[in-house]
Amino acid sequence: MLDLDLHILRGQFELRFKLQSDARVIALIGASGAGKSSVLHAIAGILKPRAGHLRWNATTWFDSQRGVFVAPHERRIGYVFQDSRLFPHLNVRANLDFGVRYVGTRERLLERSKVIDMLALAPLLDRRIGYLSGGERQRVAIARALLTQPQLLLLDEPLSSIDRSHTAELLPYLIRLRDELALPMVYVSHDPDEVSRVAQQVVQLSDRGATCT
Amino acid sequence: MFGLNEAEWAAVALSLRVSLVATACSLPLAIAVAAVLARGRFPGRSLLDALVHLPLVMPPVVTGYLLLVLFGRRGLIGEWLYDYFGVVIAFRWTGAALAAAVMAFPLMVRAIRLSFESEDPGLRAAAATLGAPPLSVFMRVSLPLAWPGIVAGAVLAFAKALGEFGATITFVSSIPGETQTLALSIYNQMQVPGGEHRLWPMVLLAATLSLLALLISEWLVRLHRRQDAG
Q: In this complex, is the C-beta atom of A77 within 8 Å of any C-beta atom belonging to chain B?
């Protein structure tokens, strides 16, 4: 259950956004500049909203009235960035294992070998980041996020940095993720067609707030 | 080689020791100060920035004198160091290292700070979402990515320390075998009537050492880049 009521203010940009949803895969769509990424940043804790609250199941991550703000590294969120943000000084294997040491003793639902298998990463493990294609980068980024055992996966236009002919190659991986892992996701996209294949609930972000369909 | 006598080789060895100790000891502090200046937004930041740069713009003799006032046997810090630890640094080679470190510090901080400032903040955010607390993000992402700047800063500081003259001679004087570094030794030789012919070997060696330092730094940075690429 995602329950958020956010007032985000960043320079000239202002956004008020409310959402309560039980859907396992929520898609946020809207024109660029509507604030989709800002909402994801706020959920992850990279951006601190000016006011409002943000709850995930029984946990409060942010509540301006009670003065609660949980730091991003304590939220157990997986974040797949638009530009993948792999660490250029590490190879694929080290990127994948970056977050593993912070998982601690909590239950590891996502096995390393299974994740590597599912995203077909075995042949890439020893490669340097500079030698990966756009689609490969995003697969590594998704696996890296999954291996931190997140309770919620945020995907910020994971297909947009990949050229059109290769998006068809990555989409099936995302659908497998949804069906095989039963992992809750918030998926941001500007492409209604892409969204209709992945999401259960679609939330449209416009200049003024949000509408659900 | 170079036709140097024993005393002159001792000056060279002392110079290398002073410069190495100065560079190695100030590097952690320089990294911390560079990170604070690159990222921090706090009152007094401009003051800290100015303070760090002071030895670069002040006459070296002034820096040397201030060091003497602070770290001399009767100095504010020097007296305390002696009373509690029995440590004396004025007129010792450790004092020469301190003078060299202070003089080279601004150059070191500048190079490292540039690296931190050019870092992509997106990578830090990504590391945080992977569960890394702020200190881990710094150690595992920012620091390795700033490596070329750190190497450049360290080598620059080493070269500067090797040639440090004004603050050193003011603070620790020019004692053969204790504080007379290569630069001071060259100066000393110039004062000897008809001693110029002994100068050239040392001048040549000083130039060679500086050039070597620059080449090594260039090589280290290139090695790093090659690792990044594949």
A: yes
